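JOB MANIFEST
job_type = single_chain_structure
chain_count = 1
residues = 341
[input]
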Amino acid sequence: MAVRLVPWDTSRNLLQETNRLYDEAGTFDCIQKGDLVAVKLHVGELGNPYYVQPCFVHDIVRRVKEAGGKPFLTDSNTAYQAQRNNAYDHMITALMNGFNMAPFIVADGLKSENFHLVKTKGILKEIEVSGVIAQADAMIVVSHCKGHELSGFGGAIKNLGMGCTPSAGKIRQHRTVGLEIDTSKCVGCGKCKDICPMHLPDIIEGKARNTSPLCMRCPMCIGACPMEAIRFVDKENLCKALASAAYGVLSTFKPKKASYVSFAKDITQYCDCLPNPGEIIMKDVGVFASNSPVSIDAAFLQTVDCKMLNDASHVDCMLQVKEAKAIGIEGEVKPKINTIN
């Protein structure tokens, strides 16, 4: 299951080159006339300059229409309190970041209430899938490859598993990771509570306690603790949960109704969900295309220095890829990469 790659070479017309890529990869073969086609993307948190450039998404929308589909842009709301945690603000962010080439339909409703609960495989037994995603006829998954502080990196699998699920599904995945507070180190300063967007840790009898089911296991309290009293437990479980959720999302589509395009450009240390994604840590690679999320993520990871991503997050980036393959998502963990010159 080969993956096609157009190198990021600005001496070439990259819009023309990506169209060659789509043709060779059969990117739009999943579309039949009249299909409602979800173009799944991440519009970028407001203030973040690193996300897939709108001109490429505009061209993908054009190609979907040429294939006879009815394209719409979509993404799910965030579970944390940010600019995209409700449909109104999410849509405004999409417009401000340049995504106005097709209707932008928030996948999980005004306040993340629209979803289908489906059975899945792996570490999760079931997962909430955003309603608009579950009802689409076909999907083009447009991903931006970058680092991620919890899962090592974000690509197509994360775009499916986290991006196609509502707030409840996101929390379900994040809470496969444990969080422990060492009370022998904690001095009850409250800095963890102050930095938490939901002020979840309680200070009880001079010690921090975090028993809330709303805790998403973000690393903010860990970074804020001056005593290093807070730590993650079983952090690698999030990678397994991403794969499990991705399987559930894909189960709502008929076979061969999804295709994948990943942009390995502006590869930052942190994800597009942050307004401050950190430094660009790798040189631009190019644009990948495949009919498998396993293969396209594996292709990116075998092209770059995975050790840099692994060391930054303290997880194995390949884990989500291997787990997705193990639970039954088609693809290769060592795919052949056909470079289009």
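[summary]
The mean pLDDT is 94.
The chain has two domains: 3-173+236-339, 178-233.
exit_status = 0
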